[in-house]
């Protein structure tokens, strides 16, 4: 248990975050990032205040204009009086912390606006990884009263798919002149996009990208089948098409509320989060030392003295039960 | 336990695989792919016969010439009388089974050679995923007496890193004209390469790629620090440079044996494999149904009635201990 003074400090941070104070919100997200011991208390306190924010994922290859698009969306949403949080995650790289916010020069116009919160987050090495860290950070922002949470990720391989699992709706961003045909074809991006956005629509080749994308989307099997992902053309740098994009998002949320899709996605997200926490705790209970610990058994497997199944059996016998670790 | 007739059938398959019969080897790898109930018995039988094969990972972006390079390596190794297995894996896509062997026309010259075994393997959805399936398939090929096992993967995002964890040495393949500068810069490929190979070295821009790569490799922090990854130029389509590439591999294996690197990597691999099996079994023991099952608790979390930590605690209490599931 936390000491009373620590609990008081946490309560104060939570109170300040609820009034939208950026420093308090940032401190709470740092607790998420650092797997702080206060996390269970924090999440238990925040739980009743969550579920209101729309959580929007934005993904796309480097160079398509993600930061510019986020900035344009934020500008329009602020004019409508909405409070917006931007969370940038890079779950794919085990090596670098990522400079995802590096070129976020365009976001500086929002730096002094308390209705906008911008934060990058490292999730690698986190207990349970992105499946735990992203929902926790989203809950902090949700409880802090943001109407929208934009989760931005770099577009490499598996990371889009992982981020799509954490959000209510996924925007896939493309641009003309980024290589051979529609880059979305790789890595299953066609399957995860709820709305496709072609940025730099004033450039040569934009029409071809839109046309090709529409054809590919029409051919892609999707669940649920009742939503046909639209393809929206924008020029993020001057705001062209942003109003139309937000209208498509509204249309998505209305239909997803009626069909129960948003509720189903949120349930699946909660399920993965709980399961990840349980697995992380079970994993922590696996002994490494001793005659039947992981170190000794792995050595025996590497040397061909034992197979991995027999090693796993022995390790399970020496692992305390769930009830004793809880 | 297996019935006697099934055990007899498995023993017969293992016996035939040891003599190098491709159909028997293929059947054993299918057991791995399908998580067959015979797997623990199979792995226990094979364990003493493993640890001899050199396991070589080969990765690179689509279009750099992976298949052609594999074919050229196989041709030269066969001339030296070595038996070679090729295992193609695509761990990154949750959607398609992958057509990794689709353009393997060049491999057809080896189709009737019993000293060559070629197989693609799906690992998504496998109990424990690639961390379990790849070492198991490699053990089958190792026990079947292949001198080298080439593990080929498509070069997208996280998959190279995952495959690098399964092999003794990682070759990273590049080619000129594949986009902006050295494509390796993305996704941490520089950190995982033990030997860099520039294919299509007769084309314009190949010298620039080699030079740029050498500079980047020199600047990359690596573990262990005592091996400086060489950059080898080849023209896979006519076999140019393949002898030099194999010489660099020999040099790597000699140094890695002396420094203990190969032993350390094999131990880390065994450790991940055992841990993955343990976690998969613990996960299977988590209850989904009932008042304190995963379904009900995830619903409470999604609705904000409960936080994920409290849900995880309750789920752990209702999870049987390791000893009762083993």
Notes on the protein architecture:
The structure is a homodimer of 326-residue chains. Chain A has helices at 4-18, 22-33, 39-46, 66-79, 130-143, 158-164, 189-192, 206-219, 242-259, 261-285, 294-302, 308-317, 322-325, and strands at 54-60, 84-89, 116-121, 148-154, 169-174, 195-198, 231-233. With 326 residues, chain A is of the alpha/beta class. Chain A has a seven-stranded parallel sheet, with helices on both faces. Chain A contains 13 helices and seven strands. Chain A is globular and about 65 Å long. Residues 92-105 of chain A have low confidence and may be disordered. Chain A has two domains: 51-264, P-loop containing nucleotide triphosphate hydrolases (Rossmann fold); 286-325, no CATH class.
- Provide the spatial order of strands within the biggest beta sheet of chain A: 3-2-4-1-5-6-7
Largest interface: A-B, 74 and 74 residues
From the alpha-carbon coordinates, what is the Rg of chain A to the nearest angstrom? 22 Å
Biggest sheet of chain A: strands, sense, closure?
7 strands, parallel
Number of domains of chain A: 2
Instruction: Tell me the β content of chain A.
Output: 5-15%
User: CATH superfamily of the largest domain in chain A, please?
Assistant: P-loop containing nucleotide triphosphate hydrolases
Structural class of chain A: alpha/beta
The quaternary state of the protein chains shown equals: homodimer
Distance between the termini of chain A: 14 Å
Number of helices of chain A: 13
Output mean pLDDT of chain A. 82
What is the strand tally of chain A? Answer: 7
SSE ordering of chain A: HHHEHEEHEHEHEHEHHHHH
